[in-house]
Structure formats: C-alpha cells, structure tokens
Amino acid sequence: MGRIYDATWGRFFSSMYDRMTAKAEEAGLREMRRGLLAGAHGRVLEVGAGTGANLELYPEAVTELILVEPDPQMTKRLRAKLAASGRGATVTEAPAEAMPFEDGSFDFVVSTLVLCTVPDPAAAVQELRRVLAPEGRLLFLEHVRADDPGLARWQDRLEGPWRFFGDGCHCNRDTLSTLRAAGMRADGVEHDSLPKAPPLVRPLIRGEATVDRAAT
C-alpha cells in the first residue's frame, strides 16, 4: 500500500507542481533563473528539467538544448510545454546519475532545484562533471542545508515528512559540499532565500562551478 500511495502522490505532485511554485516564481524565482541562464551558450544540457520552468528563459546564444527528466509524469508535462513553446529542444527520460551522453559533450549543464531530489547526489554530480566540456560550466540554483544551526536541526528532524510531501525532496542536503567533493570549483556562490517558500527549504545557493583541475 505504501508504494501505491507514494506513486499516487507522485502523480498528484507532478500535476500540481506548477501551481505550487507559481507564487515563488512570481516573487523572484523566475528572475533568479533568468539571471543564472543569461550567459549560457552553445550546447546546453538541463538535468531534472521537471515541467520546463526554465524553457523560455534560455538566451538565443544556446544553439542546442537537451532536457533530461527521469519522472514520466513530469516528462509528459515537459513535452507538452515544449510543444506549445515552439522552441527547439530534445527531451530525454533518464536519471541524473546515468545519462546517455558522451564525456565532455556540453558547454553548460544546468541544475535548478534538482540536487535536493536525486537519489544519489554524489553520483549525479560526478555525472554532471563527466558530460561537461573541459572549459564547461555548471549553472546551479539549489535550496540547501541551512547555515543557521537551529534551522538545520529542524531540517534534520523534518526531513522524512518533507521528503514524502516533496516527492523525494531532501530539505537538509549540503549541496555545495557535494559539488566540491566531486572536484568542482564553485567561486562567488550567492547565498539567498527561496521566495515564498517554507523555512525548511528557504536557504538557497546559486552560481557557477567548473571542474577543479587541481583536484584531478
């Protein structure tokens, strides 16, 4: 029964995702996404593309866009939004931990509100690193574990219930440490707040990361 209920909730969560995030998008999240993507160009991979929140924000300098999403319910909505947009892009249904692309094949990889949910974040970041071109950049915008010890303790206590409510979202992941442990260099990371979000998922980081050649 648990698995059936989880699957039912997952379908409901996917169907309601855009509505649940609408206020956050309108209150500043969309502009955060736009600013993050402004410098993207060339061949771009977006991992965990969800229902396509970034789709209309990519600049014209992006010559090829590939959207990866593992959830079939999200993928269904992503394909519909893509078809309505008229934008040229390719959708691939695959997990972030194992993507069907050659090494070093993308100028940019984009991850927005994704690494909180992937089952194995360390493996996912290694895979993002693998597909980046030698001078490629990872653009990320992720909610993370709080720096404030009190809030971090609440994130730990409520991680289980939140993970169910958020369809696999972990509210207490230290994503910046995961990036650095995978040999990614993230300079100038901005610490911000996810607008109109519950305190558990409000702490936010955004920025760019490149492969740390000194760590290889």
Walk me through what this model shows.
This protein is an alpha/beta fold and 216 residues long. Helices cover 39% and strands 23% of the residues. Strands 1, 2, 3, 4, 5, 6, 7 and 8 form an 8-stranded mixed β-sheet that branches. Strand 2 (62-68), helix 2 and strand 3 (90-92) form a beta-alpha-beta unit.
Describe what is shown at a glance.
By secondary structure, the chain is of the alpha/beta class. The chain has a single domain, classed as Vaccinia Virus protein VP39 (Rossmann fold).
Describe how the helices and strands are arranged.
Blueprint (H helix, E strand, L loop, with lengths): L1 H36 L4 E6 L14 E7 L3 H14 L4 E3 L13 E7 L8 H11 E12 L5 H9 L1 H7 L9 H7 L2 E2 L4 E4 L9 E9 L5
Parallel strand pairs: 1-2, 1-4, 2-3, 4-5
Antiparallel strand pairs: 5-8, 6-8, 7-8
Keywords:
8 strands; alpha/beta; 216 residues; 6 helices; disordered N terminus; Rossmann fold; single chain
| Structural class by SSE content | alpha/beta
Output the CATH homologous superfamily: Vaccinia Virus protein VP39
Residue-averaged pLDDT: 93
What separation lies between the terminal Cα atoms? Answer: 46 Å
Number of domains: 1
Portion in beta strands: 15-25%
Order of helices and strands: HEEHEEHEHHHEEE
| Major beta sheet summary | 8 strands, mixed
Radius of gyration: 17 Å
- Give the low-confidence spans: 1-5
* Helix fraction by DSSP (H/I, runs of at least 4): 25-40%
Q: Report the total helices.
A: 6
DSSP E strands, number: 8
CATH architecture label: 3-Layer(aba) Sandwich
Inertia-based shape: globular
CATH topology: Rossmann fold
Reading off the top of the CATH hierarchy, the class is best stated as Alpha Beta
